[in-house]
Amino acid sequence: MIRNRLVSLLPVLLLCVFVLSMPVLSADDSKPVRETIRIGIFSLAPFMKSTENGDASGASVDFWREYLAPAMNTDIVVSGPYPIPRLEMMLENGEIDVIPNITKIPDRETRFLYPSRPLANISSCIVVRRDSPLETINAQEDLFGMTIGYITSGYVPPFILHEQIELELVTTTEFREINHRKLMNGRVDALLDINYLSLVYEMNSKGYSKDIRIIPLDEDRVAIYSLFGQTYRGRKLRALYDEIMETVPPDAFDTITRRYLVVE
Questions:
Q1: E strand or H helix that includes residue 34
Q2: pLDDT tens digits for 179-225?
Q3: Pairing of the two strands 222-229 and 120-122
């Protein structure tokens, strides 16, 4: 009799054990978890920079916040600024998912993934002291014998690549500040900068424009891209990025950039 009763109660007992073993769900647990994309930046105002509060800012960051992240249905978290070599190492190690604004060079093409569509195009220039005899650059020979300050891991225009032109490189987030001081102190003859718009923005904001002369290089404009890791996750993000960029207005990034230039 007792045995029959226990047998009849067995399904009820098993159901109780199953229910009690289930995790307790909060009201938010029923919602799908949003993915977070980790972005790493270097100093390149007005495209990537830090605010006075230490928050990441700039046109490239805003482009991800306003266009890409909503279309991907993801959140973003931004770290930096860091020197470019450190960012590349972080991307390789999976500590970040994307560098939002960077040029294409052969070494990066072997280690990372570039999307099919560039973010924008930039122009290169040479910077000299205001009292320099160099006023125009018509041929490579105009730079022979010069030591030119630049940044580690940056794109170098073919015009600059010659055995009679020496590049002196720095690795720091404040590369323009360091190179400007070296130029003013006579430690280098000139500076190379591949982002004319960013350079003018920064020199004006720091009050350095009165000390220098900026000479545009007659070179083809250089494309800049968002850069992804060469991993399964990186390939997925790159493919999604390519898909979304087809729907983004062609002038969207330039519009955001002009917003910084007008306001600041």
A1: none
A2: 999 999 999 999 999 999 999 999 998 999 999 999 999 877 899 99
A3: antiparallel
Strand partners for 192: 126
Number of domains comprising the chain: 2
- Give the integer Cα–Cα distance in Å for 42 and 6: 70
Q: With left for phi above 0 and alpha for psi between -120 and 50, is residue 97 left, alpha or beta?
A: alpha
Choose among 226, 251, 229, 258: nearest CA to 69: 226
The closest alpha carbon to 242, from 114, 98, 97, belongs to 114
Residues 165 and 235 placed together within one structural domain of the fold: no
151 with 90, same domain: the answer is no
- In angstroms, the CA 103 to CA 59 distance is 16
Q: Which domain holds residue 197?
A: 124-216
